[in-house]
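Re: weekly structure request thread

Next one in the queue (338 aa):
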Amino acid sequence: MGDQSTAWDGVVKSVALPPDSVHVEDLDEEIFLIYTRKQQSKEADTGLGFVQTKKDLLEISITVKRPSLSGGVGLPAKRGTAGKGKKGGSKDPDEVTVDVALGQDLGALRNRPGDTGSVLWRISLAFAKFLLQQHHFTSPSSERLFPSWSTSTILELGSGTGFLGAALYKTTKQWIFTDQLSSLDLLVSNLRRNGIANAEVREVDWVAERDEARKLEQKGQSRKQEWINQRDVNAPDMILAVDCIFNPALSEPLARTIDHLAGSSTKAVVASELRDPEPLEEFLKEWLRLGWDIWRVNFEAFVGQEVGVGVGEAADSAKEMASPSFVVWVGHRKADLQ
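Done, posted below.
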């Protein structure tokens, strides 16, 4: 473990790591640190981390506010749906609200073993709040975690219900939704429900991607380099995987999928709630083996700088992401940092 590296700061311009972010170099040490932090915290146990397991249709409302330096009355709020914004109030409001209508498939969660993409998870909600806050109202005293977010192409792995992309769809250059074939009907239904008609939706099977990567390795360096050159033409700026690590059998395929789809300049962001350590350990072991430079983001650095309101109650978006029950890693290939 160590402090921020000059190599990362000099090359990865689209990620601004906050102070005291942790360089992940040793697998066992990282797993020990994140789970010890959780065990020592007084945070209430939230179970697996569902937002709501009794409703098939959720109405999610996220409001973010401009940080107040001196108090007083703010400008009118701006409100809109995820896919179709509604103009109102000032051009520079003091708060922005995003509404997302979200269908869940509770039957799939209960009856299909391993199906975790059919419901909304709390880290997705917390991360959406944080990114919306940073996009609309960055504190003057801090830099955005992802300075190039608004001009980036985001490829999301394990999109599930589509909530994260639906909430953030208008904040980026392009959002590419992906999941396994059996999850796409629910995903597309939710995109339509939120007026998102022209989004790119792809079937991405992590095991198939892992197997394709292995085949390329067997064909030799020249064929692999040809694939890399082709991939870089349309590679995303960022690969995002939020709460995708549940099954240890899919941990290695997920890491290989990230590596297989990432271009030379692609950054990967992996966020997860801490549950059973085995799936996270298997994922991180493979990701490190593949030659990625990995950092754990210190969200405590943002706490108190940005204020947000979400789902009907006041909340500090950065404080939610700083929960000891969450971990967020940002990665970049070491070869691209040299």
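Residues 122-136 form the longest helix (15 residues). Confidence is low (pLDDT under 50) at residues 70-77, 84-90, 306-315.
Next request, please.
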